[in-house]
Structures are given as C-alpha cells and as structure tokens.
Specification:
The longest helix is centred in the first third of the chain and has 26 residues. The radius of gyration is 21 Å and the shape is elongated. The relative contact order is 0.16. The strands form 2 sheets. A 5-stranded mixed beta barrel has the order 1-2-3-6-5. It has a two-stranded antiparallel ribbon with strand order 4-8. The chain has 2 domains: 33 residues; 114 residues, OB fold (Dihydrolipoamide Acetyltransferase, E2P) (Beta Barrel). By secondary structure, it is of the alpha+beta class. It contains 4 helices and 8 strands.
C-alpha cells in the first residue's frame, strides 16, 4: 500500500512540468500548432483587414509581400474593401514561400483568384505597399515593380 503514494507523487512530478512545457511552447510559438496547409485551392471566407483574411475553417491568412493600412489608419477601410472585392467568398489558390506562419499564427501565403495574383493586384492598384519580409521574398521584385507603377505610389 505504501507504493501507491510514491507512484502518484512520481507521476505528478513528471506530468505537471510536461503539461506546462507543452502550453508554454504553443503559447510562445503558436505557428507550431497550425495544421498543414499545402499549396492548393481553399475557400476564402472573411476579411479581417487590408492584408489578412480567413478561410472557411477559421484559419487566418496573411497576404505576404505587402503591407496595407491597419484598422483605424488612413485608407484602411478602402484597403479592406479592395481585398474583399478580390477574394471574399471565393475559391483561391494559396502558395507558400518559405515560412508557414507568422508570430501571430497566421498562414503566410501568396494568393491567386480567377487568374489574378492578389498580392500583386493589391500593390498595383495602390491599396498596399510592397514590403520584403525575409525569408519570404520569392516575388519581391515583381511586387516592387508593381509599386513603381501604382497610382499615388
């Protein structure tokens, strides 16, 4: 009978730190908890802001290589509407560069809808700036070129 308290105490000593480590890792590095989203077609659902949207399963996606005004900043409403016009409630092709997700747990992807390279359209239409976020720079030259030709660049 004396062995049971020793086993319980030993388990408690092993399990408690393991649980704490598990939660620390996924709170500190949320992108590690993301399911695999390979390149492919997905249902694009809701718009969060000018460079972030959701898939139908609630996963958030950040349009990479561009930066649009944040909510509350000048032109944020127009930038958000433009993204909605391009992708909302459509099926789109998502392409990964190097990184799976950012520090907020959002997938980082290039987006294509009906033959339109959405990242490029955001910049060339003047609703976002081309910004390099290494190591995800596959299309940086094309996006920079779009910015040079954009209205009000």
């Amino acid at each position: 009978m004396t062995s049971f308290p020793i086993i319980r105490r030993s388990l408690r000593i092993l399990i408690f730190p393991s649980v704490l480590l598990f939660f620390f890792v996924f709170l500190k590095f949320p992108h590690l908890a993301i399911a695999d989203y390979p390149d492919g077609y997905y249902e694009l659902y809701g718009i969060i802001d000018g460079d972030t949207f959701e898939l139908t399963d609630g996963t958030r996606v950040r349009v990479i290589g561009v930066d649009a005004p944040e909510i509350g900043q000048t032109c944020s409403t127009e930038a958000t509407r433009h993204l909605a016009l391009l992708i909302e409630e459509q099926k789109g092709y998502l392409e990964k560069d190097v990184s799976e997700a950012d520090s907020y747990g959002r997938l980082l992807r290039y987006v294509y809808v009906d033959g339109t390279f959405v990242n490029y359209a955001r910049v060339s239409d003047g609703y976002a700036y081309a910004v390099e976020y290494p190591p995800d720079t596959k299309y940086a030259p094309q996006l920079a070129s779009a910015q040079e030709d954009a209205p009000y660049n």
